[in-house]
Amino acid sequence: MEELDFFTDIRVTEDLPGYFAAKRAECPVVREKYHGVYMITGMAEAIQVFTEHADAFSNAISVTGPIPPLPFTPEGDIRVQIAAHRHQMSWTDHLATQDGAEHAAQRAMLSKLLTYKRLKANEEYVEGLVEQLVEGLIDRGRCEVTEDFGHAVSTLVIADLLGVPEQDRQWLLDALGPDPTQLGGDTELKMGPDPIIHLHGRFHDYMEERLRVPQDDMLTDLAQATFKDGTDPGLAVKARLACFLFGAGQDTSAQLLGFAFRILGDHPEIQERLRSEPERIPDFIEEVLRFEPPVKVLSRLALRDVEVGGVTVPKGSIISIGTIGANRDPRHFDDPDTFDYHRRNVRDGLAFSKGAHGCIGAPLARMEARVAMEHFLGKTRQIRISEEHHGPPHARRYAYEPTYLLHGLQELHIEWDKA
Ligand code: HEM
Questions:
Q1: Residues 68-76: what's their mean pLDDT?
Q2: What total of structural domains would you count in the chain?
Q3: 360 Cβ below 6 A of ligand 1
Q4: What's the domain range around 216?
Q5: What is the CATH number of the domain that holds 40?
Q6: Rounded to the nearest whole angstrom, what is the distance from the C-alpha of residue 111 to the centroid of ligand 1?
Q7: Separation between Cα atoms, residue 58 and residue 68, nearest integer Å
Q8: pLDDT digit string (tens) for 246-292?
Q9: Which helix (H) or strand (E) is 303 found in, with range?
Q10: How many Cα atoms within 13 Å fall on the side-chain side of residue 277?
Q11: What are the residues whose beta carbons fall under 8 Å from the beta carbon of 200, sequence distance 6 or more?
Q12: What number does the ligand 1 atom closest to the CA of 106 have?
């Protein structure tokens, strides 16, 4: 496993924990040989990057990692180089890839809009939506989780939160396009364009419309928002924020649901226990996020020489934090390859990252997953993995999404008995 190229070889997807465990066995901070990326596989080392040394790294390559290569040779003041070359770099328009004061100002503006009141109203919508979806599926006794359930939930939830008109939701989803971080073959060719960028125009139009005719939705709040100092960044910046918010929680949330159902289906004893203690569903979700984090790697560019876990990462190097590596670090979690939602530090996982760029949508994703589990577990007696599609328990076949960024099942077929 450790011999494979993480960023191009599809075989890595078949045993992600194995890949990171092998890397960690070498050292929790190890330079891989294909792209010269420092792979970080330990919890303490990841936390060092996210918090202690946060100012030593740029997020400009957070999504893309080493592919495609930087359009400049890092030297001198790398922040100045990034500013000069951002327009040549994929994905660098988004909040997740902004740095410093600009990032902090945009993030603060967006976070302020995710008020308790708005999230509460959204939760009511999710309750109704999930109930309706489960009602529609329950008599069938089977479904393919990612398409029939996961994507429907994650898309409609964020569309409701923002206030995207219903008739446009399918169009926006179709327009999102394929994941640009596809694995296999010539990596430069495979690194496609940013799939979110061409939605800017549509979100710009929505917000212009909201300024003319305000509504009770987040697009209106965003269109009217200003930075803390009272300046208005303009609709172009706000349209990018809205697009990213719309795109960031689609596949990730659907994948969380996929893994949650797979674990339930593969472990009837966990289902049974959860049905008798539904108040532990939030811990179950945390353990799913620890065990199978939907974002595989978080990459950063070192702006200066920096020591991580006793290893000097030279200025200009790319590091990639393997979330599953940190989340299964035996120095932090007892028996890390066992799924146990009763573990004392179940909330320590890094699926949502940490620090300045930690996921803004985490409360939403957790709420969606909790509501989905509550409804499904309540309405069923037994959820099973379809042997027809995935083989018998001792020889399951699961195919994973062919990207180096996201960790997810391509399909998950389940069956159930009604309660
Ligand atoms: C299970 C579901 C999700 C997972 C695993 C996930 C994961 C992540 C991770 C790991 C980051 C940090 C990237 C970094 O440190 O470089 C992030 C950032 C972000 N996520 Fe999520 N996310 C999820 C759902 C959502 C949802 C539902 C939304 C929208 C409502 C969302 C919006 C964002 C935004 C806006 C950022 C950028 C934050 C920043 O850079 O300041 N995410 N997410």
A1: 94
A2: 1
A3: yes
A4: 10-418
A5: 1.10.630.10
A6: 12
A7: 16
A8: 888 888 999 999 999 999 999 999 999 999 999 999 999 999 999 99
A9: none
A10: 9
A11: 236, 239, 240, 243
A12: 41
